[in-house]
Each structure stands twice: as structure tokens, then as C-alpha cells.
């Protein structure tokens, strides 16, 4: 059984249809990379999967449970997922440590001391233990994004959803964030990531899915989708990416 | 065009060591600094001179006017001021009580109203509409009319348990009007928090109320503190309006003295006391605003 499964997900904002029926199954310990041009619906797909948007049709299943059923408590479902955003979205009025311990204590009711200890250990692992008392605005973009990843991991999610987590970073800072994602993936976390980093997708993803015009045009192993794309639109997209020097 | 062998470009390496102390400023920079100092000094002198000139002209115009001796005796009599001061100061204590009690109530009612207005979903529509109507109504009606309606209307009902003290009714009227303003300040603050903050909180599993309490409101409060302090300064002087209901506050005390002596100096005394009350709050508001601006410029938000 897949950890996360999307069945015929449709999402429109007013007259703009963003997702036109997307099917996607993510098995445990797998990494799925969503690629596609801007406006292709990658972010919307992740927002639908994390229930930050209500789908207009179709289903999202988490561990086989239809979480798009309005009778399901969405807050309880979101506790089992971790989301990392393009713009980090750390809470600027809370210290780095409080950002990480907020959900474990407030949402999951874990004792403060235990949550702090665990958060310190996580921060230590990413080399930011000495920044625990700082506020996010004292950190570089790369550091903030790594804290955001740790914040999402602190609730021990079933699946981690990464929405272009390196797109807002200076090129020199991209590496440290990707290294953390690679490490998290190596530990067996189930991950769905929207990304423009084709080289990274090729190395880390088990499946690459190409989204275009709200439809999953092509998906498969990275070598196949990125190396021998079948669909002409995928080929055109990848050619543009190569022209931009990103592959 | 002469063909010349192009020499291979060699990288230019800087001789400046990073982290070393800066060398002394160049002559160019020293000259620039001197010019800036000269210009600043000249501007200060011009400002001083023009201020003095204006003050002199105003002084002569007022003191040379034919009615000045009578105005001075009626409005600026030192003996009348001294005589009225104790009563007015006692009255000011009443104003201060209204200010403290009213200020706290305004914060509570205003925040509650703002929270009601931001509720989503059809189930909350009646509450939302009620809050909207309340805000529209009490922002539109002049404070003095609300004071009359509450202060004289409620006791006239003759209901048991309805307070008749002008202090209580005056405070109630002020709270009704000011809460409507403050609710809008709070709402603006709540809406100024970027939606991505809400998304981040909800994605961590926080409920709507937890998100509001832990993530949105703390940030919103920080944003609106300068505006709230500004409203507080306005409230400080408007508490003097409860005198129209007969509460013996600073304004009313002054009125009583004026009625007895036909000298208007007590009004000036009361006015000065209110100004003295407002100045610290105004400076505090300035300081808080400046601090908020510095925070924003250092890029504390996304």
C-alpha cells in the first residue's frame, strides 16, 4: 500500500484549472521528484496533498485513508505530514528552537523537555545547535531552510512534501540544503519534492514525474524520464532546462 | 587596425587583506565630510533664525492687540490658576481611572470583535455580521452622541441593576466607540500577517485557534502597537468628555470654578494637565514606531 496516493485530483482557482486529474502513488521509503515548468501545478499538487487546499475532485489517500473526505479532521491528517516551503516560512517571532519544538509540544502534546532535547539533537545534526536561541532573521537562507526541514521532521511525519526548497536560495547555499534532503532520503523518509534541480532529482529520486498543464505527462525512473523522455513536451521542457544550464 | 598579439589576461589580485583595519580616510572623503558638516551647520542656523523671527512676530501681534490685557486677565491669571489647581488635579484622577479601566476594556472588546470578523465559514456568518454592524455603527456616530444616549438613555429605562453612575456609563460609552476603532486596527494587523505563515502553521497540524494564538496574533500585535498607542493618546483626551454626563472630572471641576469666578483660567489649567498626560504617551508611541521600523528594515520578515 502506498503511503501517499493521489487519484484523479482536480483543482481550479476560479476559471483557471490547475490540476486536471492527477494520479500519483508514492510508496514507503521512496523519493518522487515532480518536475515541470512554472505554473505547471507542482506547488498546487503539494498543497492539495497536504490539505492546505481543498481538492475540487478526486481523492488524496494517506496510508490508504481517504483524507479528502470532509468528515475527516484535516488537522489530524496534517500532523502526519511534513511540509517545507520555498520561502522557508519560519515563524519570525519565535527562536529557532521554539520553531522546531512548537508542533511536537502544542500539537502532539510531548513534554517540553523531551521536545527540546530532540530538537537540540536535530539542530546539532545539521550543525546549527549554536543557533538554537537565535531568531530566524539572523540566519542565512540556507540555514533557515535547513531549520524548516528539521521543523517538519520534528513531528516524525509519514511523508515529507518539499515545495521547491532551493528556489529562493543563492546558488552557493543550494548545496547544503540538498545535502540535508539527501541525508533524510537516505534514512528512508518518504519524500515528494517539487524541484528544478534536475541533477539532484536524477541522483536522489526513485521516480521522476513530469507535470505539464495540470496533467502528469510522464513518470518513471530518472534515467528514463530525464535521459530518454518519451513525450515530445517532456523533451521540449528538458531542452529548455539544458539551455538554461540546469542539467 | 593594427594587429597586436593579445597578451593573456592575468588575474588582478587585490592587495587589501580581508578583515584588516581600514586605512585612514582619503583626502577626497575628508573633504566630503567637511562639506556635509558645513552644510548641516548652516541649515541649523537658518532654522533657528526663522523660528525666532516667527516667535517674535507672533508675540508682538498677540500682546499688542487691543484686547490682550483682558484676555490675559481672563485666561492666564496666575492666582486663578493656583486656586483651581487642587480641584482640577483631583478631577484628573477620575479621568485617569476611566482611562485605565476603559483602556483595558477597549483592548479586550476590540480584539474580540476583530477575531469575530476574521472567522471564516457560513456557521459564523451571524457573529461576523454582528461584529461588522457594530464596527460600522460606532465608528460612524460621534462620541458625544453615544455619551448622551448611553449616559441619559440607560438610566431613563428605570431598569433595576442598570448603573446610574456617570463614571460607569461614561466609561461604557467610551469603550463602545473606541473598541470599534481598535477592532479595525487589530483586524488590519491580523490581515497583515502573510498567508504563508498560516500555511506553515496549519501544515504542522496546528488548529485554526492555535494558529491564531501562537503564530498570527503575536506577529499582528507587534505590527499594530504603534497604531494602538496612537489611539491611546486620543483616548487620553476623550476621557474628558465624560464631564457632559456630570461626572466631576478635570473638565467638570474647571467648569465649576469658571462658573463661580467668571475667569476662564481653569480651562487652560485643565488643558495643560491633559497635555502633560499625553506627552509621555506620544513619545512612547514615537519610540515604539521607530523601533518597529528598524526591525522591518533589518528584514525580520520574509
Automatic annotation (TrEMBL), chain A:
Family to which this protein belongs: Belongs to the ABC transporter superfamily.
Membrane topology category: Peripheral membrane protein
Taxonomic source organism: Geodermatophilus dictyosporus
Domain ABC transporter, chain residue ranges per copy: 4-238
Keywords, sorted A to Z: Amino-acid transport, ATP-binding, Cell membrane, Membrane, Nucleotide-binding, Transport
Pfam families linked: ABC_tran
Top-rank lineage group of the source organism: Bacteria
Subcellular location, record wording: Cell membrane
Name by which UniProt lists this protein: Polar amino acid transport system ATP-binding protein
GO cellular component annotations of the record: plasma membrane
GO MF annotations, alphabetized: ABC-type amino acid transporter activity; ATP binding; ATP hydrolysis activity
From TrEMBL, chain B:
Subcellular location: Cell membrane
TM stretches of this protein: 43-62, 92-116, 137-155, 167-190, 264-285
Keyword Cell membrane included in the entry's annotation: yes
ABC transmembrane type-1 domain boundaries: 92-285
Keywords per UniProt: Amino-acid transport, Cell membrane, Membrane, Transmembrane, Transmembrane helix, Transport
Gene Ontology MF annotations: transmembrane transporter activity
Principal cellular location given in the protein's record: membrane
Listed InterPro entries: AA_ABC_transptr_permease_3TM (IPR010065), ArtM/GltK/GlnP/TcyL/YhdX-like (IPR043429), MetI-like (IPR000515), MetI-like_sf (IPR035906)
GO biological process: one example: amino acid transport
Family annotation (PROSITE patterns): ABC_TM1 (PS50928)
Record GO cellular component, one term: ATP-binding cassette (ABC) transporter complex
Membrane-related topology note: Multi-pass membrane protein
UniProt record similarity statement: Belongs to the binding-protein-dependent transport system permease family. HisMQ subfamily.
Protein name per its UniProtKB record: Amino acid ABC transporter membrane protein, PAAT family (TC 3.A.1.3.-)
Organism: Geodermatophilus dictyosporus
Amino acid at each position: 500500500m502506498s503511503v501517499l496516493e493521489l487519484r484523479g485530483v482536480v483543482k481550479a482557482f476560479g476559471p483557471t484549472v490547475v490540476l486536471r486529474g492527477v494520479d500519483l502513488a508514492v510508496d514507503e521509503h521512496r523519493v518522487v521528484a515532480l518536475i515541470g515548468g512554472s505554473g505547471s501545478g507542482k506547488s498546487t499538487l503539494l498543497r492539495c496533498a497536504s490539505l492546505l487546499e481543498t481538492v475540487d475532485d478526486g481523492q488524496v489517500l494517506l496510508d490508504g485513508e481517504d483524507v479528502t473526505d470532509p468528515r475527516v479532521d484535516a488537522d489530524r491528517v496534517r500532523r502526519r505530514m511534513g511540509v517545507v516551503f520555498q520561502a522557508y516560512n519560519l515563524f519570525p517571532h519565535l527562536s529557532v528552537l521554539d520553531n522546531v519544538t512548537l508542533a511536537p509540544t502544542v500539537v502532539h502534546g510531548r513534554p517540553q523537555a523531551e521536545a527540546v532535547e530532540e530538537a537540540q539533537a536535530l539542530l546539532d545534526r545539521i550543525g546549527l545547535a549554536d543557533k538554537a536561541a537565535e531568531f530566524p532573521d539572523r540566519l542565512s537562507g540556507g540555514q533557515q531552510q535547513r531549520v524548516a526541514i528539521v521543523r517538519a521532521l520534528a513531528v516524525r511525519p509519514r511523508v515529507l512534501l518539499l515545495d521547491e526548497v532551493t528556489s529562493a536560495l543563492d546558488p552557493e547555499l543550494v548545496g547544503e540544503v540538498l545535502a540535508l534532503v539527501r541525508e533524510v532520503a537516505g534514512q528512508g523518509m518518504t519524500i515528494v519534492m517539487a524541484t528544478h534541480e534536475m541533477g539532484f532529482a536524477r541522483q536522489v529520486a526513485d521516480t521522476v514525474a513530469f507535470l505539464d498543464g495540470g496533467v502528469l505527462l510522464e513518470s518513471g525512473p530518472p534515467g528514463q524520464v530525464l535521459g530518454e523522455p518519451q513525450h515530445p513536451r517532456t523533451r521540449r521542457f528538458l531542452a529548455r532546462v539544458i539551455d538554461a544550464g540546469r542539467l | 587596425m593594427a594587429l597586436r598579439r593579445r597578451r593573456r589576461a592575468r588575474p588582478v589580485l587585490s592587495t587589501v587583506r580581508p578583515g584588516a583595519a581600514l586605512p585612514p580616510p582619503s583626502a577626497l572623503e575628508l573633504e566630503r565630510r567637511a562639506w556635509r558638516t558645513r552644510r548641516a551647520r548652516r541649515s541649523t542656523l537658518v532654522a533657528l533664525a526663522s523660528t525666532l523671527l516667527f516667535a517674535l512676530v507672533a508675540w508682538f501681534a498677540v500682546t499688542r492687540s487691543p484686547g490682550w490685557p483682558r484676555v490675559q486677565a481672563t485666561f492666564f491669571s496666575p492666582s486663578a490658576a493656583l486656586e483651581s489647581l487642587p480641584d482640577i488635579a483631583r478631577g484628573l484622577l477620575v479621568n485617569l481611572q476611566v482611562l485605565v479601566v476603559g483602556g483595558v476594556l477597549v483592548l479586550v472588546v476590540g480584539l474580540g470583535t476583530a477575531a469575530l470578523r476574521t472567522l471564516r465559514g457560513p456557521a459564523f456568518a451571524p457573529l461576523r455580521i454582528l461584529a461588522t454592524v457594530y464596527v460600522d455603527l460606532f465608528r460612524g456616530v460621534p462620541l458625544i452622541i453615544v455619551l448622551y444616549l448611553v449616559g441619559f438613555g440607560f438610566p431613563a429605562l428605570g431598569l433595576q441593576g442598570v448603573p446610574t453612575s456617570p463614571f460607569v456609563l461614561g466609561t461604557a460609552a467610551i469603550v463602545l466607540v473606541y473598541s470599534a476603532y481598535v477592532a479595525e486596527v487589530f483586524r488590519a494587523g491580523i490581515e497583515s500577517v502573510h498567508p504563508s505563515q498560516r500555511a506553515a502553521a496549519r501544515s504542522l497540524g496546528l488548529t485554526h485557534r492555535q494558529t491564531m494564538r501562537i503564530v498570527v496574533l503575536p506577529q499582528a500585535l507587534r505590527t499594530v502597537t504603534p497604531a494602538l498607542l496612537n489611539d491611546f493618546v486620543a483616548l487620553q483626551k476623550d476621557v474628558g468628555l465624560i464631564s457632559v454626563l456630570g461626572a466631576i472630572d478635570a473638565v467638570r471641576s474647571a467648569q465649576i470654578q469658571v462658573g463661580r469666578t467668571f475667569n476662564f483660567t481653569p480651562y487652560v489649567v485643565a488643558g495643560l494637565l491633559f497635555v502633560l498626560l499625553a506627552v509621555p504617551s506620544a513619545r512612547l508611541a514615537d519610540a515604539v514606531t521607530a523601533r518597529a521600523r528598524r526591525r522591518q528594515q533589518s528584514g525580520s520578515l520574509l
